[in-house]
Amino acid sequence: MREITVTPKLVVDGADAAIDFYRRALGAEPGVRHAAPHGNVAYAEFRIGASTLSIKDADEHDAAAGALFTLEVADAYAVGAALEQAGASVVFPVDDQPYGLRQGRLRDPFGIQWIVSQQTENLSEDEVQRRLGSAPG
């Protein structure tokens, strides 16, 4: 079987502004960009680290829709601060969680939510369940 690759596509109001936001907040590198006849983005790509995402402007075929992505990072506090400084709003502040991660969630100006996640402990599944106070399954 051939290897499968999944590339998320974001549909937003203001794709060019979104790419610029991701460049400032997360160091995104813009790639190809194709405009529709009316000038809106029909298709564009950008890279964040080793990941490629695609994006387009909302139109009569595709409404702007939210999404939730997790960024695994070396410094969750720094990445959360960079997102906030670039214009994202805090949904949940970055903090140490009982399941061994330092995480927070921010919503960018385009409605996309980003979980910044930094591993702080190596825990077994049983230990995570114990700390969360619930039974597995």
TrEMBL record:
Q: What is this protein called?
A: VOC family protein
Question: Which Pfam families would you find in this protein's record?
Answer: Glyoxalase (PF00903)
**Domain (VOC) ranges:** 2-119
Its transmembrane ranges are none
Task: Please name the PROSITE patterns in this protein's record.
Answer: VOC
Q: What SUPFAM superfamilies does the record tag this protein with?
A: Glyoxalase/Bleomycin resistance protein/Dihydroxybiphenyl dioxygenase
Question: Where is the secretion signal located?
Answer: none
Please name the InterPro entries in this protein's record. Answer: Glyas_Bleomycin-R_OHBP_Dase, Glyas_Fos-R_dOase_dom, VOC_core
**What lineage does the source organism belong to?**
Bacteria, Bacillati, Actinomycetota, Actinomycetes, Jiangellales
